[in-house]
Amino acid sequence: MIKTIFHQVFRGALIPVLLASHLVASPAMAQTAAQVGIRGSIVSVGKDQLVVKNNEGGQQNVVLDKDTRVAAISIADINDIKPGSYIGAAGITQPDGSQRALEVHVFPPAMAGTGEGHRPFDLAPNSTMTNGTVGDVVASHGRTLTLKYRNGEQKIVVPEGVPVVSIEPGDRSLLAAGVKVVVRARKNVDGSLTAISISAGKNGITPPM
Q: Which residues are 96's β-sheet partners?
């Protein structure tokens, strides 16, 4: 990631990811195959395959199929988050039960409902991902948001300096050597990886998920 902008503790969202977060696989898919998160940069792009150098220095081949989703990641302004905005927040549970945000993903209106809910996440030990609609917004030393989703809500505390990015639908034209990506992949029975979703940074941005 661009360290002067994003000093990160997804991840590994969208996935999520989306994914994280991110874009999420269907429940049926989640039951039949393990998912793997890959954060790194693209080494090469083939017709239906990526080679990604992960943040640990290894290279991984990832197959692309007709169902692989691509999202574009760019910097967002937290001041644009208003009541009614649809966002995702990776966080850590605090003693009072609120979530201290590690990063925030802002979805366009057309993607409202993506990954709705509250669940464990792999950005950091014991981290969570909450996707929902913003209710109250309190501005004081950062932001405190009430994030509502079906059958629940979470209080999200967003400290100053937390990465805030926008997530928009993209396509494979975003995938090129050197582009920073977060890949959510399905691990097949033969050990190969098939991309479920790819979050690709625009203009040199490193997705913080």
A: none
